[in-house]
Amino acid sequence: MEVKTYQDPQVYYEKVESLLMEEEALNNLPLGIAERLRSQPAKADLITLENGEEVVYTLIHTMRNQWVLPACDADDSVFQTAADFLFYNDYPVGGVVGEKKGATKLIHAYTKRSKRNNRVHMNQYVYRLDALQPINLGKGKLKVAGIAEKGLIASWLYNFGVETGELSIKDDADVLAERMVTAGTMHLWVVDNEPVSMVNQSRNTRNGATVNAVYTPDRHKEKGYATSAVWSLTKKLLDHGFQFCSLYTDADNPASNSIYKKIGYFPIGESVVYRFHTEL
């Protein structure tokens, strides 16, 4: 087994595409990041484990984020090899996110090698939707967020990062708001000309689109606004030709999970986020 690193995002994408497309919806995160890096090159660590010409595993690390792992079958030796490569080559490992079984094997191998403590930051479900279920939309309408709402989006992203413990979102709220508004991906649910909830069209894969950053301020919660916003954006994406939509949820948040199931999303797998902290 050979470990390879790639500098060219296009070459990397061509190497890993067939592996990741075996489970396109489950691999929406690594596929979406790899796709984005092709069109918007940025500093990233792109690693594959290969048997001959066959890619059997891959890891992606963009700056200030955790390592992103795929959903694919792999022998235990693959996870040990990957962990050893990260450790002995002094790669920064603040955490990992990926399909639960594989991510757990990798984190255990790396923890044993590095003698560092890890913790589960979040257990997640990966959801997929192929067809919307009809619902009674609440009052209001969906609109694409504009420049005038950039400050509001930044403040909501900051609060979203605090609530979910995603420090990179909290710390980069202004940058993310600028990017989302400029790209036209951030949407607001508006009632009587007042934004009351937000939802973002995130990364795309060949056949699907991902929804994220679903947030409603406390004073507007429990009014069905998030449900209406997610339903409406999902419909927009399907109407634009995507075959399916996907999203991640906090497995320990029954309220959000019930919202997505009501709309027509169904769980297709489990993911987990591990974080490292103090040395042993």
UniProtKB/TrEMBL annotation:
A Pfam match: FR47
Residue span(s) of domain N-acetyltransferase: 142-280
An example molecular function term from Gene Ontology annotations: acyltransferase activity, transferring groups other than amino-acyl groups
PROSITE patterns registered for this protein in UniProt: GNAT (PS51186)
Coiled coil: none
Highest taxon of source: Bacteria
InterPro entries documented for this protein: Acyl_CoA_acyltransferase, GCN5-like_dom, GNAT_dom
Protein name as it appears in the record: N-acetyltransferase domain-containing protein
